[in-house]
Amino acid sequence: MSCREILTFQLGNYSNYVGAHWWNIQEFNLSYGGEVTNSNEIDPDVLHRCGETLSGEETYTPRLIVCELAANLGSLKQHGELYGTETVSRGEAGQFGVEVVEQPRVEKNPFLEELEGGPSGVQDGSPSDELEVDAVPKRSYRMEELVRYWSDYLVPHLHPRSVFPIHGVPPASERSDSFSALPNGRSAFRDGTEPREQWNDRLRYFSEECDNLQAFNLIVDAHDGFAGVAWETITELADEYVSKTKIAHIVVPYCAENNDRADRLCRHINMVLSVDYFSDNLDLFLPLSLNSNFSNYNSRVLPGVSYKPHLAYHTSAILAASIDTLTSPFRLKDRLYRAGDLAGSLNGFGRRLAATSVCLPFPLAEGLADTLSVWSDQPPLVPLTPGFKYPALTGSQWVTLRGFSAFDWSSCNTPLSGQGLLHQCASPQDLLEMYVRTAMSKQSEAVTIGDPLSTSHPFPGILLPSQLAVLSSVESSSQCNQFLEPLIDGARSINIRKLPQFVENGLEADEYNETIMRLFDLSDCYKQ
Asked: Phi first, then psi: what are they for 318, rounded to 5°?
């Protein structure tokens, strides 16, 4: 049986923070050669590809395309270390028509040095020893102090064609408006043919080697210039891969109240333009953030999780754990869910936007039936979509519960006094289906997965224990307007003519107003 491959894109700095944690979670369940070490139900071939180094050694790498500023790669080499080569084409170096100065070498932190067996890591053009789960450093490093780049905690090797760097743009901490707006990212592809050709070469390379490509999974920064990179990428996917499912996770870093006002306005407009375009060209997109909404700067409270909102290393770990759970149904070995099933169950009537909520970790100490009985009226879910206040009890939902295999099912099924319907269910799947159709929405798809969410160092210690039960919900309901309405209201209050990074790149006031009107139409879809 073919494995229903998925090709993942990570577009932007925060997306790569999220992606680094997500791939570390995958790595923890693997040893090289594709042998599964900790997972029984998840098929790793859906996200990974087999290959060989030049010396004939087998590799098992993420099926992944990364777009990042060259200045934000840290110690990660563009072509990786599996092949012991660091060659950059002239076209890549000059893609913006500017002289490129070689980036100063960034030394690997102590965690990466230990991970690779010493400060050199690679000797004589050959990869270091295979990174098995047991080889991941067990020493307790203070990663919160060590992490400056997402590559500082990335465990798996990447394929030489995975990383697509954007040269000539300084990192966010140093730049002004050079890559702050969506049009900046679009121009990276429009101005000349070489960047687009190189990008498309990577796309064809990874997609054409698949036997049964089911979907493109995008993790996207939509708050800065990478929104424009996502725009052009999605345009290419929509034109060339019409039959393939396209799902995007819009990840938004925590925005503190002291952020510059002009920066906040720019972020808002980027989000407005992105949501409008995504709603027409994707099968489904899910905004994810630890910001509670657009109008204040409160962070979400997750019971049992003590995280620092200003640390991307922390917040991205929570979003990565959530993405891993909500995508796990279409990575199962023995059940043929597909990404298109998720999108098709939620995107009717033009509803391409869906909201995500999670209970992380999900408490199962009292047994599954007893635990769900406690929340018979309202599930213990925390929204991760900005503006979203609580899960709806109407509309369409896709609910996933994972991690009950750590508990004996017979003890989970022991009734409380006054036996209820949940305690009479014959299996965890039957139990969850009954629960979501009574406590949540009757138009719900329920999926149970015995495997827990397994994490290991360098995943931050904000989630304990290392094997967690997780409940996630993706829904399309009238509650989605809690995200859209503040977005529209904020957009209407902005005078686009006062933001030169948009006007000077061709965004006219009339076009901006038409975008806002289309968002009104999208909002109306959720009122039907």
From this structure: -65, -45
Q: Which two tokens stand for residue 101?
A: 């100065």
Greater pLDDT, 295 or 71:
71
DSSP-derived 3-state class of residue 10? strand
Quickly count: other Cβ atoms within 10 Å of residue 419's Cβ.
11
- Cα(360)–Cα(478) distance, rounded to whole angstroms? 24
Q: Average pLDDT for residues 7-17, to the nearest whole number?
A: 97
In tens, the pLDDT along 27-61 reads 988 754 444 455 579 999 999 999 877 777 888 99
Q: Which residue shows structure tokens 């450093």?
A: 137
b/e 117-139 (16+ beta carbons within 10 angstroms → b): eeeeebeeeebbeebeeebbbee
pLDDT at position 373 = 85
CB 111 within 8 A of CB 146: yes
- Cβ count within 10 A of residue 499: 19
Sequence-distant (6+) residues with CB within 8 A of 48 are 26, 30, 34, 60, 61, 62, 63
User: In angstroms, rounded to a whole number, what is the distance separating the alpha carbons of residues 195 and 2?
Assistant: 33
Query: How buried is residue 291: exposed, middle or buried, by Cβ count under 10 Å (0-12/13-18/19+)?
Result: buried
Q: How confident is the model at residue 107 (pLDDT cuts 50, 70, 90)?
A: confident
DSSP string, 448-488: EE-S-EE--TTS-TTS-SSEE-EEEEEEESGGGHHHHHHHH
Q: Token pair for residue 345?
A: 């169950």
C-alpha to C-alpha distance for 86 and 390, rounded to whole angstroms: 49
Residue 332 pLDDT > 80, yes or no? yes
Tell me what percent of the residues of the chain surpass a pLDDT of 70.
Answer: 82
- Orientation angle between helical segments 182-190 and 194-208, nearest 10 degrees: 90
Q: Does residue 519 surpass a pLDDT of 70? A: yes
Q: Is the CB of residue 449 less than 8 Å from the CB of residue 41? A: yes
In whole angstroms, what is the distance from residue 29 CA to residue 43 CA? 10
Helix-then-strand count for the chain, H and E: 16, 17
Q: What is the distance between the terminal CA atoms of the chain, rounded to a whole angstrom?
A: 41
As a dihedral over the C-alpha atoms of residue 253, residue 254, residue 257, residue 260, rounded to 10 degrees, the angle is -10
Instruction: Lowest mean pLDDT of 253-262, 372-381, 453-462, name the range.
Output: 253-262
